[in-house]
Write a structure and sequence with these properties.
Blueprint: H1 26-30, H2 43-54, H3 59-69, H4 81-92, H5 97-104, H6 113-126, H7 130-137, H8 141-157, H9 166-173
Helix pairs in contact: 3-4, 5-6, 6-8, 7-8, 8-9
């Protein structure tokens, strides 16, 4: 992993929550629903919740977990439901090579659709077996073969984009 890149959280890992600022904030003890304001116009509670988030050491993990799970309730990672809804589309278009590499070596990380596509391309280029790729993606071998065929079609239709070599893909399909 690159220096300075945040630790990748495994899919479903919530152990970071114990280190969250909201877990110990006095304001939360007084008002357990602070991060879940009753109405969007409850600006004072939203500002207070965001203020607690601003000093949190696991804020990025909290936000990422909320975006990955589609969590639409309350203030998470310093953002309201409406703010996260806007971010979600951009988040789902992300293609982080560090996450792709982590998945290739077996880490159980959440991958967006573009990251899964890149994983398939890299795996096929490197000669990763269909079985191994199926394990990483948590899908059947038949589905992996289908994904590789789809990648080949995409290469034929878009020759300017990085594509897997036909010989490598044909070997992977056997």
């Amino acid at each position: 992993m690159r220096e300075g890149h945040p630790r990748l959280r495994a899919r479903g890992d919530q152990t970071w929550q114990g280190r969250a600022a909201c877990a110990e904030a006095v304001e939360v003890l007084k008002d357990p629903d602070l991060f879940f304001p009753g109405t969007p116009v409850d600006e004072q509670r939203v500002r207070l919740a965001k203020g607690i988030c601003s000093s949190c050491t696991v804020r990025k993990m909290c936000l990422e977990a909320a975006l990955e799970s589609g969590d639409a309730a309350g203030v998470r990672g310093g953002f309201t439901e409406a703010e996260r809804r806007v971010m979600r589309n951009r988040f789902e278009l992300r293609c982080d090579p560090v996450r792709v590499e982590a998945a290739l070596v077996g880490r159980d990380v959440y991958l967006t659709r573009p990251e899964r596509h890149e994983l398939i391309r890299r795996a096929a280029e490197s000669g990763t077996s269909v079985l191994r790729l199926a394990e990483v993606l948590k899908v059947s071998e038949a589905h992996v073969k289908k994904l590789i065929r789809r990648e080949l079609r995409s290469c034929a239709e878009h020759p300017e984009s990085p594509c897997i070599g036909r010989a490598v893909a044909e070997v992977a399909l056997i």
